[in-house]
Write a structure and sequence with these properties.
Shape of chain A: globular
Distance between the termini of chain B: 30 Å
Largest sheet of chain B: none
Radius of gyration of chain B: 20 Å
Oligomer: heterodimer
Shape of chain B: globular
Distance between the termini of chain A: 35 Å
Chain lengths: 261, 209
């Protein structure tokens, strides 16, 4: 609070100063700052602090979220399996969920699509869908939990990601597997290596015994039953094994990056 | 000899004047602050996927959108949990809970409720809780424990799956979490109203006497 006060020039309207500062921010930051600022009005009432304090409040919240990433990585038990369910428990219809309408969902041509494999792997070859379908698959019925709070039980079939990582000679000491997707605006999301190597983390090709429909991420989705839904990327086009934190579509907007369940 | 007795009594009465010790006051207001943050951000999180046919007005929520509210919720939870654990530990270790909140008898609760409703309940000695207070304070501690546990069950339904199962599964735990919030809000309304009706109880929670 004191730090911010010192930065203010006497005679300069604080509100205008903030508005000018906001203009210099990149688009996404600006959107977030403004939405955050509005809500911080409520806190202003409680603490009597100036609205410019939202700079430091936002920074504090980011730091705590990073701390929470660490805590969650610490309590993540690689041997703890997400509960599995039976066929009769499957939610029907299983909800379509994205930041766009179903009609705007990507239409991927399975014949020309290739999964690009990059980064710290021995074999950087791209994989066709036909090649991927040759890999051994397992089926699992688990609960999908959305960051919004709702949940739904679905049946996903595919190849355990850890088997594929072994196959391509990935350096599993690396920190992340980073996925890029075909969604509009370019969806992407990082997955910590411990979770990528979890037995239930899957490259999914089927939903409910049918080829993965467009609504659920054709041709390939990464199903991670130990994470919230937004950490389960759909329409995946590439994966990169990396030590760099490359951010993610929702993670960059403030959702906790680890978001383990 | 008689002078000595008088001064002894004097010391005793000034000692007895401390109604709320400093540790209770510090933990109480920290808890109040953390609870308000948790409830206001919790309402915003609820709005993303309401359990019932209503949403909370954005004028009373914290965080601006789901992502902001989650950041607040998962930051304030540390304050709430650490503060709550200290409160439970000290309350049990010093015997305060036992001395202040027990016993709770149905007869006592009924007669004190009647007295309260007819305006005959005495507030002369604030160091002693009446039976209605005992019941509500003990009850809200239990609800406080439940809301933290059901919150953990929602947050970690895989890592803490046995806890989640104890609440009847993920979806049921969300309802438990919601109803605990509702109970706490109802408690707060009554609690604040009564503190304002008996201002010396509010003063005791601020300056101790």
């Amino acid at each position: 609070m004191g730090r911010m006060r010192n930065l203010l020039i006497p005679g300069v309207d604080k509100t205008l100063l903030v508005r000018d500062a906001v203009k210099t921010m990149p688009d996404l930051t600006r959107r977030r700052f403004i939405s955050g600022g509005a809500s911080l009005g409520a806190l202003t009432l409680l603490t009597g602090c100036d609205v410019t304090d939202s700079f430091s409040a936002e920074e504090m919240l980011k730091q705590v979220s990073k701390f929470n990433d660490g805590v969650q990585a610490l309590i993540f038990n690689p041997n703890a399996m997400a509960p599995t369910f039976s066929e009769k428990d499957i939610t029907k219809p299983f909800p379509f969920n994205a930041y766009y309408d179903l009609e705007d969902a990507p239409t991927v041509d399975g014949k020309t699509w290739k999964l690009e494999v990059r980064g710290l792997v021995e074999n950087k070859k791209s994989w066709t869908l036909e090649e991927l379908y040759q890999l051994p698959q397992v089926k699992q019925i688990t609960r999908h939990i959305c960051v919004e709070g709702w949940s739904a039980i679905g049946s996903w079939t595919g190849t355990p990601l850890r088997d594929f990582l072994k196959l391509v000679g990935a350096d599993t000491r690396a920190k992340y597997v980073w996925f890029q997707c075909a969604d509009k605006d370019g969806y992407n999301s990082p997955l910590d290596m411990a979770t990528a190597l979890h037995a239930q983390t899957q490259m999914t090709f089927k939903f409910g015994d049918e080829i993965l429909p467009r609504a659920y991420g054709f041709p390939m989705k990464i199903r991670v039953p130990t994470k919230l839904g937004f950490k389960n990327p759909k329409y995946v086009i590439s994966m990169e094994v990396t030590n760099d934190y490359k951010g993610g579509f929702w993670e960059d907007q403030g959702y906790n990056s680890f978001s383990g369940s | 000899m008689s002078a000595l007795t008088v001064s002894d009594e004097h010391t005793a009465s000034s000692k007895a004047k401390v109604i709320q010790p400093a540790w209770v006051r510090a933990l109480h207001w920290t808890n109040a602050f953390a609870m308000v943050l948790m409830i206001m951000s919790g309402w915003q999180i609820y709005n993303a996927s309401p359990l019932f046919d209503f949403r909370f007005s954005s004028s009373i929520t914290l965080g601006g959108w789901l992502g902001g509210a989650l950041l607040w919720h998962f930051a304030a939870m540390w304050l709430l949990m650490v503060n709550g654990l200290i409160y439970l530990t000290v309350g049990l270790a010093t015997g305060r809970f036992r001395k202040k909140l027990l016993p709770i008898t149905p007869e006592g609760v009924i007669s004190d409720t009647k007295a309260a409703l007819t305006g005959k309940l005495s507030h002369d000695d604030l160091t002693k809780y009446n039976y209605v207070q005992k019941l509500l304070y003990a009850g809200i501690i239990v609800v406080g424990i439940l809301i933290v546990l059901s919150g953990l069950a929602i947050w970690k339904p895989v890592q803490l799956q046995y806890l989640t199962a104890l609440f009847g599964g993920y979806d049921a735990a969300r309802y438990v979490h919601f109803f605990c919030m509702a109970a706490i809000v109802a408690f707060m309304v009554v609690h604040v109203a009564l503190a304002l009706l008996v201002p010396k109880s509010l003063r005791a929670m601020i300056i101790g006497r």
